[in-house]
Amino acid sequence: RSVLKTPLKQAATSHLVLTEIQPACQPLTTPPKPKEVLPADPWTPTSNLKMLISAASPEIRSREQRRELSNTTSEVLQAKHCLQEHLSGDEYEKSQPSRKEKSLGLLCHKFLARYPDYPSTAENNYICLDEVAEELNVERRRIYDIVNVLESLHMVSRLAKNRYAWHGRHNLSKTLQALKKVGEENKYTQQIQMIKKREYEHEFDFDGERQEEMARSFGSNEHSEMSFVELPGMEFRAASVNSRKDKSLRVMSQKFVMLFLVSTPQIVSLEVAAKILIGEDQLEDLDKSKFKTKIRRLYDIANVLSSLELIKKVHVTEERGRKPAFKWTGPEVLPDIQDTKLATTSTTCPPPISESITSKEQCSKNLFPSRGRQNFTRHPSLIKLVKSIENDRRKIQSAPTSPVKISAGTDQNLSAFPGKMAQVPAIAKHQLEGQSMKAKEMKMKLPRSALECNLPSPEVVPKPEPPCTAAPSQPSALTQPLGVCSPSQGSAPPVMLPHTHSGVSYAIYLHPSQAHTVTTYSPSFMLQPLPCANVTGIKNINSKVLNKITTEEGDNQIAADDPTKSLTAKERPTIKSETSSQRCLKRSQALQENHLIKRCRSDEEGLDTSLTFFPSGYLIPLTQCTHGNKAGFSDKEKAGICSLQHTTYSSPIAGVIPVTASELKAVNIPAFHITPLNIMLSPTSIAAGPVLSNSCLNSSNTSSAQNPSSSVLNFTLQHVGLIPAGVQVSANPVLQQVPLSSQPENVSQSSENMNLQEEKVSQNISQLLDSGWLSG
DNA sequence: TGATCCCGCCAACGT
DNA sequence: ACGTTGGCGGGATCA
Questions:
Q1: What residue spans carry the region label Disordered (predicted)?
Q2: On chain C, which bases lie within 7 A of the protein's CB atoms?
Q3: Most buried of A172, A188, A433, A660 (most Cβ within 10 A)?
Q4: Is pTM, for the whole model, over 0.85?
């Protein structure tokens, strides 16, 4: 299968959209980077120009940019001439590469010019890094920079070694929603405020250090670090791709984007961004070098985002002077939409067609991951497992046909134009919102009720509410031309539905490091967050305040740009639809299979309230887990996946986790536990969780460790906000079930179902344990 | 000069 | 052992 692996150029040419470009003259050896290739190379200036032109959108490009382009162009031409004619000594050198020409931004434009914004579903929009590097005549290293950022937006996803799949902007709106949500959860707005405040303060007294420390303390709490936010469609892949280490560009990029999405003026200065990002990573020292490095990276990211026209550079004038900053010029992010969409989609859901495989996948998706909502954090070790699984999957999938991209198509329809979409469904949305709101409120206020709801829902549960209420209504049709759901999406939507506000599902993986961090803070940290969790309201308030500040600070000037956009109202995700639960039910029914059940639960959980704070690692859309399968999957793999998912979702883990996190030290349980917590996000889900967790726990030997005490768990969870205040989960599986479970039966079922998977999971866990962290 | 940020060393990983 | 990824920061360019 792996035919793909090394994508040689040959192939490349064929697939690429562009194709034309150049004759491959050189020895392509993939890897060998042709370092300084003289201008003479392959890429024809013309082609570049073309690309550039096409790339540059009319207005968006600021004049400066235009200038650049023109310059570039001219330069290119010149270079060309030189080349063509003959290179005469030095001159050509000069002409060659002005720094600008080599800029990442320009390169990114070229890169983007190669692919359509909204690629048709399945086309082979796949990207071969080597090819691209060659064609664009740059070192591969640079391509990585671009791709990493694109990946953070889910515009591309990695398929395999050297290969990426191009999704274009189909997933963009979803991604942004998810990012916004996470950003809110992380209280980024507040963090920004704090930083700004400090700055002011600093102005007075220099004593920056002190302040920093303060900041740290503050920040530390807030800094949650989330690693990577994944979308439902592309989760795993990404996960695999990003190994633990990838905490940088990809994640940084997402965080950076989040800052824009949660800022009212939508203007973010590099300085602030850098500070926040640094804070998250390591609160410790803010040394200059680190700061500087961060800034450098941010420039890299900003260049790519600028090329995508998501942001544009501006200068904020403050008392101190001008500071470089960027303003969001991308689409507004409407939290609600997704829900609607999802709902809609879900409606559509009925298995799409396509082929067995596709349908299968979808189904599975529905079943399993369904809803996407499940979020969870992953411990590194888990990640490993996941990776291996993924890899397998990948291999399997790798086949050309790989449907992989699935999601893209679908999404696009849906998400592509959030605004529009939103409008259409608006009404429905409202309705939903209302419902969701109610639900939310209920949850918030009446945890118990929430619990009840949750519990039941997961399993059997026919919740009182109208399941898809909104969903049916509409739009889905619009969005998705294909009756069938696009694989990814189709499946996804259903999944997503459950989620609350944003509806975006995502999973967060924790980094080991993070885990530590968390641990460290835990006490204080946890506390703070808690409130937040529910906090949407609070957030809003904060945000307002922040905004003011921001404005004052000077961003304003820029702000002037377009104050218009005020997102304020939207900020809150509040919306959520319970539909999800219903869906779950449906799905579950349909599937009945064990897995499904679990998933449902998780879905339910999905409420977004989530915990914001946690340091998370990676967000993954659960939904997909499934998709990998297809024919390709071996049962084993599936099982593995399932298990993972279960783990993830399954409350058990989650339940455990929270506790762990807070008490990791004591327990010695690694991040692993924590991870689940993240997942826990939705309070609702929590209820469901416990049951599963039990199984999981049991399976895992860790149990002892985990078992901390149910009280601890509860405490943790509550604080975290995962669980509604009133609710309690027992660490102990048994116990947990009791309280929550309204449906013991279900539980049992689930557990049964789980068994197989559990085994796997347990195996995995054991492996993990073996690996060592569990030493304690 | 400060803002940008290219370049490519080299480590972490994967195979 | 070798190839792929990509963190990182020196130092060149630009404004």
A1: 556-578
A2: 3-11, 13-15
A3: A660
A4: no
